[in-house]
Design brief:
By secondary structure, the chain is mainly beta. The chain has one helix spanning 2-22; strands at 27-38, 43-55, 60-75, 78-96, 100-109, 117-127, 133-146, 154-166. Strand 1 (27-38) and strand 2 (43-55) form a beta hairpin.
Amino acid sequence: MRRIIFIIGMTLGLCFCVCARGQVKKDIWSEVSTQLSMYGNSKRHMNVSYTWGYNFTNRFSAGINIEDDITLFKIDGEKDHYSNITAGAKLNYDIIKKFIGFQIGSGVTCDNKPWKYLYYDAMLRLKTKVGKVIPTCGFGIRYYDSMSKSFGNHLRGYVSMGCVVVM
């Protein structure tokens, strides 16, 4: 019985030490960013996103985001565009603290437009900290899983520029 109590005590102590060591950073932050991609003449995407997030540790954070996504299509020689509002979530991990980070995310369209989709996102971003402001530049890919029969699924590469403010 003593052995079980000792093992449970040591396990709980180890968990407490790991959590205390990992929970160094507790910051709330917000980010504004824009993404731009081009597919030649058939599809062009641009979106502006606003994210609210929380730093769980010095390297790991999560956030929820709202995006205004504009897509320009050229189908059978006719140009058209769609503007969608999307909501989603992001997870961030700093590979090299305060310099290189990796971000994954997912979201879904919120409005009742002709083109509805889910998206899955992965981005590698460079950043630097200047006081409580962190300018960012990223390179990523986004997969659109279309829920509309008139539009197919597609993958796009993009460049992102943004700014994070730690509160």
